[in-house]
Amino acid sequence: METLKRASIENPVLLYTLEGNVQGLQSIFEDPAEVHHEQCSKLLLEEDLLGRSCLFLACILGRTEIVRTLLKYGANINQQTTRGYLPLHCAAAWGHLEVLKTLVELGSDIMLLNFRGEKACDVAARYNKTDCADFLLWAGK
């Protein structure tokens, strides 16, 4: 837990993602007077040891507006972790249908596979997120 606290202090994009603070995120990217403005793109794309950026966290937490905001400022919608997971896989696993709809609307590739050879709809089905699996099957047609 202490590591997460330290990381969020060092990376305000992560902190605002955790808090669900859309205005804070916008401020970092749009206000040249903001302390972290010059390094905002680097902070946005910063990854943990597994290759997950703040976008993955927003998808896991079900923060649709944060997802939209991160993508607006340059997050990679089709970024894959070292094991091939996309933000889409994370949203599917956690059952966040609105986040899934947003990712599909904004161009996430629903056909990409993780290391197990699973599409996001397969991950949703594995975790019994039926509404998510049904939506992804429909979107893939």
What would you say this structure looks like, in words?
The chain is an all-alpha fold and 141 residues long. It is 59% helix and 0% strand. It has helices spanning 2-10, 12-19, 22-30, 40-45, 54-61, 64-72, 87-94, 97-105, 120-126, 130-139. Helix 1 (2-10) packs across helix 2, helix 5 packs antiparallel against helix 6 (64-72) and helix 7 packs antiparallel against helix 8 (97-105). The longest helix is centred in the C-terminal third of the chain and has 10 residues, at 130-139. The protein is elongated, with a radius of gyration of 15 Å. It starts with a helix and ends with a helix.
Short key terms for the protein model shown above:
single chain; 141 residues; mainly alpha; 10 helices; disordered N terminus
Secondary structure layout:
Elements: H1 2-10, H2 12-19, H3 22-30, H4 40-45, H5 54-61, H6 64-72, H7 87-94, H8 97-105, H9 120-126, H10 130-139
Helix pairs in contact: 1-2, 2-3, 2-5, 5-6, 5-7, 7-8, 7-9, 8-10, 9-10
Enumerate how many helices there are, as a single number: 10
Average pLDDT, all residues: 92
The 3D shape can be described as elongated
Provide the succession of SSEs. Answer: HHHHHHHHHH
Ranges where pLDDT stays below 50 over 5 or more residues in a row are 1-7
Number of strands: 0
Helix content: 55-70%
Mind telling me the C-alpha Rg? 15 Å
Distance between the termini: 42 Å
For the largest beta-sheet, the strand count, sense and barrel status come to:
none
Q: Tell me the β content.
A: under 5%
Q: Would you tell me the structural class of the helices and strands?
A: mainly alpha
Keywords: ANK repeat, Repeat
Pfam families: Ank_2 (PF12796)
Protein name: Ankyrin repeat domain-containing protein 45
